Amino acid sequence: MAVPLLDLRNQHDAMADELRGVFESTLRSGRFILGPVVEKFEADLAAYCSTRHALGVSSGTDALLLAMMAMEIGPGDEVITTPFTFFATAGCIARLGAKPVFVDIDPATFNIDPRLIEKAITPRTKAIMPVHLFGLSAEMRPIMEIASRRGLWVIEDAAQAIGARDGDAVVGSIGDVGCLSFYPSKNLSAMGDAGAVTTTDAALHARMKMLRLHGEETKYHHTYVGGNFRIDALQAGFLGAKLPRLDAWAERRRENAGRYDKLLVGTPLVTPAWNAPGKHHVVNQYTLRVPGGKRDALRQHLVSKQIGCEVYYPVPLHVQKCFAYLGYKAGDFPHSERAAAEVLSVPIYPELTAGQQEEVAGAIREFYQL
Question: Boundaries of CATH 3.40.640.10 in the chain?
């Protein structure tokens, strides 16, 4: 049977009446931009993320941009991050005129290796931007220690990791600002683009709130040059309806990850470290390593069987054409480059059935003639 990479129909069917109610109440209210629905979602999200403040924004990309604008990061500044991530992580740094400075990943986690950060710091470094990739928290304790000692901001790119924890600390509450995405493929998904920033810093929150609305302090009086980074009330309503279900959905993802681990025993594949001690992985993606140069062949085989799969991400950022001016070259970050050549993500959404997982695993075993 065909198995899609993502299928939200069952999730939405199960709460269809509630979602229709959100739409109808928003329609009747006439309040489509910000307003009380957004404020309630922001309060609930802040509580969920263990922060004092949360601010709904237009996308995860705009969350990153807004956070750095509030920190006045711009031309001449450097931000340390990973080259193995979605484009927006470094793209937002560059959009502000700052310089992305890349540090290689830990091959076991796919996240930035904190042991390599210190030597990348220069007098121009202003922030560190760790990415909690695929739903696993980066090693935040050493990162926060370095940032504290060196006087640097920490911006958590938690786009794929809402609800993940590093020890007892919830991602988005550890650094100065956490940046979330609610793109439809995320664990907490909007029906369109949406995102959020979280923080416990009242001054940063106030600045981001103004920057979200063109830097406006009071109507038509602008303290900063900001942007239009507002979340729609309708998306906030949908997200607010889904938020109470998020932990249960994440647990289903973890159960599915455990089932895959068992089904794939005996294959050459390296399964993800989703159950590492001291971490709570929310498994936004179940990302395999395919050794031996066979990733693309396996992907083609799965596609031929109508099984959804995707490569996140095939080209590390340091060798993207648009970042050629940074002067990096192939070979500079070998762990990121190897990951880009080996990773393959397979379906992991909460509503995925055991039968569908058996279909995925069966196709993989067929590829390896097992």
Answer: 9-103+111-244
Rounded Cα gap, residues 213 and 230, in angstroms:
7
Quote the percentage of the chain above a pLDDT of 90.
100
Contact call for residues 153 and 127 (beta carbons, < 8 A): yes
> Are 305 and 50 spatial neighbours (Cβ–Cβ below 8 Å)?
no
How far, rounded to the nearest angstrom, does the alpha carbon of residue 125 sit from its chain's CA centroid? 23
Q: Mind listing the pLDDT tens digit for each residue in 92-106?
A: 999 999 999 999 999
In 19-85, the DSSP E strands lie at 53-57, 78-81
Residues 5, 9: Cα–Cα separation, whole Å? 13
Residue 232 pLDDT > 90, yes or no?
yes
Please report which confidence band the pLDDT of residue 39 belongs to, taking 50, 70 and 90 as the band edges: very high
Cis omega (within 30 of 0) for bond into 183: no
| Spatial separation of the C-alpha atoms in residues 309 and 259, rounded to whole Å | 17
DSSP class of 191: S
Residue type, 111: N
Supply the pLDDT for residue 1: 86
Mean pLDDT of all residues in the chain? 98
Tell me where in the chain the CATH 3.90.1150.10 domain(s) lie: 246-367
How far apart (Å, rounded) are the C-alpha atoms in residues 157 and 177? Answer: 9
The stretch 197-221 carries a mean pLDDT of 97
d(CA 111, CA 136): 8
Q: β-pairing, 279-280 with 165-166?
A: antiparallel
CATH topology of domain 9-103+111-244: Aspartate Aminotransferase; domain 2 (3.40.640)
Output the CATH code of domain 246-367: 3.90.1150.10
Q: Residue 50: what pLDDT? A: 98
**Distance, CA of 42 to CA of 49 (rounded, Å):** 10
Q: How large is the average pLDDT for residues 341-347?
A: 98
